Amino acid sequence: MADAGRDEVAGRVLSAWDAFIERAEAVELDRPSRLGGWRAQEICVHLGCWDDHTAMADLIASARAGGSGTPRTSTPPTRG
């Protein structure tokens, strides 16, 4: 994908997000995930774009700065 053009990557990314949304709608959000301590709900919320949460923007900034892609923390968000 790194060598693919913008139009090709955009199509793949959009279809991947569509598949994610389809699965998120079907999964039991209270079930634990393979990510220790995180339920499916925390994963979906973590990937979302919220005014007070910038996970995707932070990931993009890290990639542009040459980051390794290692998350800053493995602690799940506080459940409310």
> Which residues sit in consecutive blocks of at least 5 with pLDDT less than 50?
none
Total domain modules: 1
Radius of gyration: 14 Å
State the end-to-end CA separation: 38 Å
What structural class results from the helix and strand content?
mainly alpha
Shape: globular
Helical stretch tally: 3
How many DSSP-defined strands? 0
Helical content stands at 40-55%
User: Could you describe the largest sheet, including whether it forms a barrel?
Assistant: none
Strand portion, in percent?
A: under 5%
Summarize model confidence as the mean pLDDT.
80
Written as H for each helix and E for each strand, in order along the chain, the element string is HHH
Structure summarized in a few sentences:
This is Mycothiol-dependent maleylpyruvate isomerase metal-binding domain-containing protein. The protein is mainly alpha-helical.
Structural features:
80 residues; mainly alpha; 3 helices; Mycothiol-dependent maleylpyruvate isomerase metal-binding domain-containing protein; DinB/YfiT-like
List the helices and strands and how they pair.
Elements lengths: L5 H21 L13 H8 L7 H10 L16
Describe this structure in words.
49% of the residues lie in helices and 0% in strands. With 80 residues, the chain is mostly helical. The chain has one domain. This is Mycothiol-dependent maleylpyruvate isomerase metal-binding domain-containing protein. InterPro entries: DinB/YfiT-like. It comes from Blastococcus brunescens.
